[in-house]
């Protein structure tokens, strides 16, 4: 190996300088590159409750990441090490969760409990109990637990520490990448962009394990803020969304003699330019079907603009926050697959509209539930029809059958279902929901 002088070791790596805020291109000055790269993960702070060992390992990653400006290979080292900390975080959280005691359920025998003081103790107990086909007791559930990464992921999901259906696919991808790093079959190189993203994903996962969602997070986002909004449409099919405060201004539409508009008041995710949480399907709002991407709550209408203003001034509704992950939908299959419904709305349907096969599906977005049910009609697609996680998409099947059976499956997941009967309100639809009746 060539011995390099200190001055050369201190010099910026020309390849690292090529990554700038606009992508690959002109080289940045070393001072600017050092600041820019550090800012990519500067806000990835862990919650105060995270285990000390996990925290120390993560902070070491952030420290070493800054040196990638001097040595491009550091980014690959950081990315690989972040994937290994993935399992460390799960182990540390498991030890806190079990509180020093783990319990196994043995077929046709009493439960067996062990005291453990380290994860090595856990592994020894697991190896002993696997020979007896025992399962780990996680609350009221029993799971296959091998003490390895797969078992830890299953435990974290069963214990309710990780949430979201789409994030499950990201966890699976991280697990595969971790296994590739732990058991390499060749040389690989990562980029500053890839390394920063892996560190950010790791920070989100650690924080979620210890009970803190990430504002504007990619994997485990914090609840989204909903504001009071007015949705309007006319006979020509024109639609618009405006904040409720706009109704207190001069009614320019009526003053200009435009077409008659109808208005409904809702709680909805506001449109923020550049935000990943903008609801692209707000104009397809329907009180019966879940046709907007994020939960939109009906409050009043339809009526004229003056009536909407009067209702708002009298009721003064306020915004709220809503978690859109792990929602439960009922999807009706009768000659065709209809858009998803909320269980409370499905519970209020008249008897003549309860026909066909009903599917109870847990998903983050209504389109995920719809795509799963539609895909499950063709067995060659790989979509599951039996209860459990679908191997082909990010949905979980909770049950299928009659209307009553689907509602019972929803109640098992959510608790008692309150019947909801809403007026029939629908904005002009687009081609996104072609099967909407």
Structure report:
By secondary structure, the protein is of the alpha+beta class. 36% of the residues lie in helices and 18% in strands. The chain is built from 14 helices and 16 strands. Strands 7, 8, 9, 10 and 11 form a five-stranded antiparallel sheet that branches. Strand 3 and strand 4 form a beta hairpin. Helix 5 packs parallel to helix 9. About 2% of the residues have low confidence.
Protein traits:
437 residues, 14 helices, alpha+beta
**Radius of gyration, CA atoms, in whole angstroms:** 26 Å
Secondary-structure element pattern, one letter each: HHEEHHHEEHEEHHHEEHEEHEEEHEHEEH
Subunit arrangement of the protein: single chain
Number of helices: 14
What is the CA-CA span between the terminal residues? Answer: 72 Å
Task: Name the overall outline.
Answer: globular
Give a quick account of the main beta sheet: strands, pairing sense, barrel closure. Answer: 5 strands, antiparallel
Query: If you average the pLDDT, what whole number results?
Result: 92
Would you identify the regions where 5 or more consecutive residues have pLDDT less than 50?
252-258
Secondary structure class reads alpha+beta
- How many beta strands in the DSSP annotation? 16
């Amino acid at each position: 190996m060539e011995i390099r002088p200190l001055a050369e070791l201190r010099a910026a790596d020309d390849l690292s300088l090529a990554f700038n805020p606009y992508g690959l291109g002109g080289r940045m000055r070393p001072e600017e590159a050092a600041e820019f790269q550090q800012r990519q993960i500067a806000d990835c702070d862990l919650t105060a409750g995270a285990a000390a060992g996990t925290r120390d390992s993560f902070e070491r990653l952030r420290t070493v990441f800054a040196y990638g400006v001097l040595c491009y290979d550091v980014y690959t080292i950081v990315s690989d090490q972040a994937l290994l900390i993935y399992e460390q975080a799960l182990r540390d959280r498991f030890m806190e969760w079990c509180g020093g005691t783990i319990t196994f359920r043995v077929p046709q025998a009493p439960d067996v409990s062990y005291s453990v003081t380290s994860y090595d103790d856990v592994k020894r107990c697991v190896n002993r109990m696997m020979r007896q086909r025992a399962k780990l007791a996680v609350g009221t559930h029993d799971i296959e637990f091998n003490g390895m990464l797969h078992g830890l992921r299953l435990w974290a999901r069963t214990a309710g520490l990780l949430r979201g259906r789409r994030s499950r696919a990201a966890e699976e991808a991280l697990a595969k990448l971790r296994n590739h790093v732990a058991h390499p079959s060749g040389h690989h190189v990562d980029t500053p962009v890839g390394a920063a993203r892996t560190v950010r994903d790791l920070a989100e996962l650690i924080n979620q394990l210890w009970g803190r969602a990430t504002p504007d997070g990619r994997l485990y986002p914090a609840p989204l803020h909903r504001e009071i909004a007015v949705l309007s449409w006319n006979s020509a099919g024109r639609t618009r969304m405006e904040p409720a405060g706009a109704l207190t201004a001069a009614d320019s539409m009526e003053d200009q003699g435009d077409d008659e508009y109808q208005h409904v008041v809702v709680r909805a995710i506001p449109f923020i330019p550049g935000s990943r949480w903008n609801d692209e399907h707000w104009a397809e709002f329907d009180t019966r079907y879940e046709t907007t991407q994020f939960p939109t709550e009906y409050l009043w209408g339809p009526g004229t603009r003056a009536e909407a203003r009067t209702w708002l001034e009298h009721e003064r509704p306020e915004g709220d926050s809503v978690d859109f992950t792990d929602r439960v939908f009922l999807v009706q299959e009768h000659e065709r697959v209809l858009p998803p419904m909320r269980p409370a709305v499905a519970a209020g349907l008249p008897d003549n509209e309860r026909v066909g096969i009903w599917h109870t599906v847990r998903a983050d977005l209504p389109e995920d539930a719809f795509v799963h049910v539609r895909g499950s009609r063709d067995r060659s697609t790989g979509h599951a029809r039996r209860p459990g996680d679908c191997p082909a998409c990010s949905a979980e099947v909770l049950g299928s059958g009659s209307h009553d059976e689907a509602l019972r499956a929803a109640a098992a997941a959510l608790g008692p279902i309150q019947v909801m009967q809403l007026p029939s309100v629908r904005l002009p639809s687009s081609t996104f929901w072609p099967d909407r009746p």
